[in-house]
Structure formats: C-alpha cells, structure tokens
C-alpha cells in the first residue's frame, strides 16, 4: 500500500522506544506527561454526568453543533473572562476534542506543504508532529528561564515569514518555563506588526503553585492594538478537570474560527456531547475553584519535593529552574566533576536502577540539546519522588 | 490571513443555505440526517455511565490509549463477530471519535494532493468534503437500486487507479440502497485483484426493518482470498446507541491501522474515555439487542408511513425504492404529467408550505441529478410524516 506523502515527514520511533522502557515492574516513572487522575473530582463529575443525562438528556445523547454545546461555550467564556480576557464572547470560542484537536484544526486551516512554522525549542512533541503531518517545515526559537527568546523569535519571524508561531507561554511542556510579562507584550506587538498568527497553547496556566502567572496573551491582547486579530488561544480541561472528557477550546479571529469549524465538521462532526453537557454541568455547579486549589497544592508540594531532592542529591551536576506551576521540571546535565552529560545514556542507566524520565532530544524540532531531560512530578507521591530521585543519583554514579 | 490551499477544494455554501431554511417555526423537517434521540436508551446509558465512573474511575477520567479502551475494543469486536466477521480480533480494531474521524484518519494516511478517490454518486456529503480537504480528486461511480454499479466501478478503478474507493454498501446515505450479495463479492474480488483499498462505511447496517441485509464486506472478505488486505470497515455507535458518545471504530490491515493510530495521536490523542467506558459498560450489560429491536420497529414503521403517503399523494410524479433499513428515502422527480422536475425548486415551494427535505445535488461529487432528493423519516412520528407529505403534495401543485 502506498501511503500519503505527508506521513514521510513524521518520525515516531524515538518515542515508541522510550515508552517500551516503562513496562518494567516496580519502576518509578517521571516520564509521563499526564496529570494525576486521582486528583480528579470523581464525585463531582459523576454528579455532573447524572445532571446532564437527566436534565439535558437530548443534548447529552444526540449530535450537537460543531461549534460546541452553547452552555459549555458560555461557561468556558466566563472562565476565560474571570482570568482577565474580559472582552471574549461565547461566539468567539469553539469546543474542541482536547486542545490537541485545536492544533490539528489550526494546522489544517493554515499550513500548506512547505509552509514554515516556528515553535519553541524544546516544545510539545505532539504539536511538532501535528504540524509536520500537514507538511510544515518546523523552525525552532530558543528559550531560556523566561520563556521564548523574543529577540531571536522576532528575527526568525522576519527571516522566515512563518504561517504561525506556536507557544506554550505558561509552565511550558517540557520546559516548565513561563514567559515574562514584558516578553508577552513584545510577542503581541510582533504579531500585530508582522501580521503573524500566534497560537497560545495554555493547558497548564491554571496549575500555579503560589502566585498566578502573568496574564495570558489573550487577556493581554486587549492592551496591544491589532494583536487580537493574529492571536489564537487554546485551552483544555484535561489537566484541570479530567482528560477523559477530551475537551478543549479555541478562541480565534472570526475568519479563522469559521474555517476551523468547517474542518471540525469533517474531522469529528462535534466533540462528545455527553462529555460537553457533563462539563457544562460541572462548571455551572461552581466546583472548579476548589478542584483547582486542591490540584495546585498537590502539584506544588510534589514539585518542591522533587526539586529539593534533585538539588540535594545531584548538586551542580544537574541544572534546572524551579517551576512555578505545571507538571514538569526541565533539567540539563552539566557534566560537572566529570559526570555524565548525555541524558539518553543516563536514562538507560536509570531504568536499570528502576526509575525513568524522558531525555530532552525528541522535544526539539531541530538543534536538540542531548544534555536535557524532562522529569514529571505529577503522578508520584512524596515518598516515591524521593525514592526515584535516590535511584537517579545512583544511576548518575 | 492566507489560509492553507486545501481549503480551496471545499465548497460549503450549498449546505449552509439549506440549513438556513430550517429555522422556520412549525416546519416539518425531512431534511435532517440524524437518528431520533428519543429512541436512545437513556436509562441504560445513565446506568452505564455510573457503572463506568464507579468501577472504572481512573479509566473514565484519565487519558487512554490512542487505539481505544481495550474492554470497548473487545466488546465492539464481539459485536462484529456476531454479525459474521468471525475472524476479527480486538487488536485489528481501533476506536474513533465517530466514524467521521475514521474517514479523516484514512484520508490523512492515504491521500496526497491530486490522488484520486472513487465514491458512490450520490454519497455522504461529509465524506466527499473530508477527502477533498486532503486534496483528493473525487470521482463518482453511479448507483442503482442495488447499490453501486460494480461494472462501472471496475472500469473506473482500472482507468483512474484511485487511492481508495469509499462505499456505504448497506442502507446508504442518502440513497437508502443496499448492495446485493453478488455485487459485494465482485467489489471484494476487484479490491484483491487490483490491490485497491475499499472503505466500507457501515453506520446503518444494524437498522434493518425486516430481514437482515447481506453480510458486510468485512464478513464476506473471509471468503474472498486476498481481499481483507485491501479492506477497511468503519462502524459507529451514533445511529444505534447514541451520537452523543461520538464513538465509532475502524478495522484495517495492520500497516494502515498503525498509521491511523499515529495520525489519531496527533489529531485528538484518544476518544473521550468517559464515553468509551460508558459504551463498554453498556455493551457488557447486554442491552443492545433490545435497543436495536426498538429502533428497527420504530424506523420501519416510519419508513412505511412515509413511502405509503408518498405513493398515494404523488403517484408517478415521484419515483423511489422502498428502503429496507436506515433513515432515508432517496427519490426522484419524474416530471410526469408536466409536474416539476427540479428538486431545489420543489424544496423552496415546500418550505413555503411548511415542510423541508434536502435536494440531492450536493450529495454528488460530480454529475449531479437535479431531480433527486433525500427525505428522512427518522425523527417524525406517523402523524407528522403524513402532514409533511400532505404539504409536499400541495407544494408540487
């Protein structure tokens, strides 16, 4: 069988290889990219599902509008307004099957084969692959502890005139980094000035540990004339309510939004209305604030435990910036004292010791730094985190 | 903003225009393409959702395997085996976000811009659009009352060497037609002989009124050597359990299946696990047989009422084949006695009288027959169907 040419652009063996390692019994895994399902408010979701099936029976069981279930669109709009995007209206927001579908639809609408796309290096692996499947040439803009290097990004945009720039400005995956307020302004100014579409993917922004992060690009765009017309915001319930609902949302300029709706119609018609009506009931019941407080406290505690243990156990052999939210610590082997500098080699030794993480190379569309790695603290308790780091230290030798 | 070139291949204004007409108060609509949500077993689905959230809590609320929730894959496999595809294994079946996503993934995996695809004329509109969005040139194979004209199809395949042939062999949308057993064999023989991928889209096959239809291409492929390697079967729970779950499935040869899984990973990661665990519980509870009996009886009654009323009211001015299952009557204005022959013009008059259907032209990828139309009997009761047909008769004048 001859498959479509677009499949030639995607290489997935590196990831498959990784996940093969994780089947080992007794392994402490820092490799996952997922939130902790035990933090989900299962009773609240059950109550919401029952309310949906009882009160909104037809809406829950039938096909729905491709744009999404209007009461959910309204709830999500209110959620965004409460976070500072005070001028957003429900008509500007559509529901997607996870924010992953948002990426897929945007790529489908925007990217012709050979078009250029700029992403952070490192960034979310599935976004790189998604863009490549539509034939994009993916270009990397470097990041530091303050998020994407906007000075470099501006030059890359000028040089390459990309169809879009994809950013995770807050508690990035895998970087954990958060773009500063000043850089956020500059990104928006650049979008408006160069008429370049910027996608803000924001699945983690609500998972801050202490203080809230700077306002989203969406909220800030109200203050930067002309920027809203070149900005897409993608949100997700997967990390804050339940990944099992597979619900995200997308806020985009009207002409692009209309096209994403058309593409969604021919992709999956609509997102599960059982899930949508359940989510709408959940949000209407006002439980989200407590759910978020609970998750913030748990993840914050785990992040502190992991960072403290890494510092204590590895000293200057591993460098990292303490994340202020999200699910990940992004770290770099320094080679200090002659220690290992290759994260892939370290991971192989670590798996033999009964602990795993993800070497950083696959998160780069280009110019990978082989000394980098991602550690997730999301799903292990304090004792497991300490034991896992203990094994990591042993593995580094 | 400059959008992707692929969007230039799709024209949706004809459909939008249509649906604008349906907002009129008091209208009897035969225009819908949807099943009757009131036939859903809401108590059974509620029970299943509660069982899923209680017994499979983590599976219901977390991310899941891209291939689908294994207990659901096993239930769907058993469902297919019970319908004659006795050699199918759960590993050969993946869960999709409705069978619409099956089409999207198959198109993504198979179609490079300029590739050819053969579909029935008429066929499911969203399949045509889905294929065009991946740059396909869509070619039409004519149908008659016995489904696709296999003699013509064979010649078209030889002439065009398409990447795939898309068929709805049983109770087609919009045609209502069912491919005969003999033609089914010939399709499979052609697939094996010419090494041409055939997609069997089968959302309606379980909705027969009296006798079951001929075996699916999937079941029959066991008897046609070499055909299974060029056959994809797409199924859906949308018409038989609930469209709100947004769950379908796809059975494909291993090399193609692996690629659809990869594409699904970057499309929506996995289908809603809340929906999947609910569906698995529902199927395991053994309620499906009664649910199907109920739907078959209801749709069969409505189809008879509509066909009887059309024959009585319009005589030889309208020709159609009585469907043996599904949701649709496909009909053709004959112009007998000097009556109208244009379905679009009739529909405009009909809307003025308070009844609507879908003119047939948009269901053709090419060579549309403007005298054709689709009438759905799915969502109206007998009295409404009679009143609607009465208005149709008035409108034809």
TrEMBL record, chains A, B:
Q: Which residues form the Aminotransferase class I/classII large domain?
A: 46-392
Keywords of the record, alphabetical order, are: Aminotransferase, Pyridoxal phosphate, Transferase
Q: Which SUPFAM superfamilies match?
A: PLP-dependent transferases
Needed cofactors: pyridoxal 5'-phosphate
Highest taxon in the source lineage: Bacteria
Q: Which Pfam families match?
A: Aminotran_1_2 (PF00155)
Is Ligase tagged as a keyword? Answer: no
Q: Its Gene Ontology molecular function terms?
A: transaminase activity
| Gene3D superfamilies named among the record's database cross-references | Aspartate Aminotransferase, domain 1 (3.90.1150.10), Type I PLP-dependent aspartate aminotransferase-like (Major domain) (3.40.640.10)
Instruction: Enumerate the InterPro entries for this protein.
Output: Aminotransferase_I/II_large, Class-I_PLP-dep_aminotransf, PyrdxlP-dep_Trfase, PyrdxlP-dep_Trfase_major, PyrdxlP-dep_Trfase_small
Check the record and name the PANTHER family matching this protein.
AMINOTRANSFERASE, KYNURENINE_ALPHA-AMINOADIPATE AMINOTRANSFERASE, MITOCHONDRIAL
Q: What is this protein called?
A: PLP-dependent aminotransferase family protein
């Amino acid at each position: 069988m001859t498959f479509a040419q677009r499949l030639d652009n995607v290489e997935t063996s590196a990831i498959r290889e990784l996940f093969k390692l994780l089947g080992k019994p007794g392994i402490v895994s820092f490799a996952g990219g997922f939130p902790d399902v035990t933090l989900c408010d299962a009773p609240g979701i059950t109550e919401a599902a029952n309310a949906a099936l009882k009160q909104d029976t037809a809406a829950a069981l039938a096909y729905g509008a491709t744009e999404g279930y209007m009461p959910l669109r309204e709830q999500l709009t209110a959620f965004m307004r409460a976070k500072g995007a005070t001028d957003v209206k429900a008509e500007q927001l559509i529901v997607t099957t996870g924010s992953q579908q948002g990426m897929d639809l945007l790529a489908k609408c925007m990217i012709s084969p050979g078009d250029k796309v700029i992403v952070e290096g490192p960034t979310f692996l599935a976004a790189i692959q998604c863009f490549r499947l539509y034939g994009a040439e993916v270009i990397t803009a470097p990041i530091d502890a303050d998020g994407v290097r906007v000075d470099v990004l501006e030059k890359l945009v000028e040089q390459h005139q990309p169809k879009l720039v994809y950013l995770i400005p807050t508690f990035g995956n895998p970087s954990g980094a958060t773009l500063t307020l000043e850089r956020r302004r500059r990104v928006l100014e650049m979008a408006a000035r160069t008429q370049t579409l910027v996608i803000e993917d924001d699945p983690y922004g609500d998972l801050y540990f202490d203080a809230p992060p700077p306002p989203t690009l969406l909220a800030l765009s109200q203050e930067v004339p002309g920027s809203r017309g070149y900005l897409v915001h993608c949100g997700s319930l997967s990390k804050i309510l339940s990944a099992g609902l597979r619900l995200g949302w997308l806020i985009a300029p009207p002409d692009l939004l209309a096209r994403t709706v058309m593409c969604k119609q021919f992709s999956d018609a609509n997102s599960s209305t059982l899930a949508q009506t359940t989510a709408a009931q959940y949000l209407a019941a006002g439980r989200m604030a407590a759910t978020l407080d609970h998750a913030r406290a748990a993840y914050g505690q785990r992040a502190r435990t992991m960072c403290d243990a890494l510092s204590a156990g590895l000293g200057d052999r591993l460098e990292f910036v303490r994340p202020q939210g999200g699910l990940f610590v992004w770290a770099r082997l320094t080679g200090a004292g002659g220690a290992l500098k290759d994260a892939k080699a370290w991971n192989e030794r670590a798996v033999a010791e009964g602990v795993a993480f993800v070497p950083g190379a696959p998160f780069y569309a280009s110019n990978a730094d082989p000394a980098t790695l991602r550690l997730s603290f999301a799903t292990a308790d304090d004792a497991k985190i300490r034991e896992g780091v203990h094994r990591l230290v042993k593995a580094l030798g």
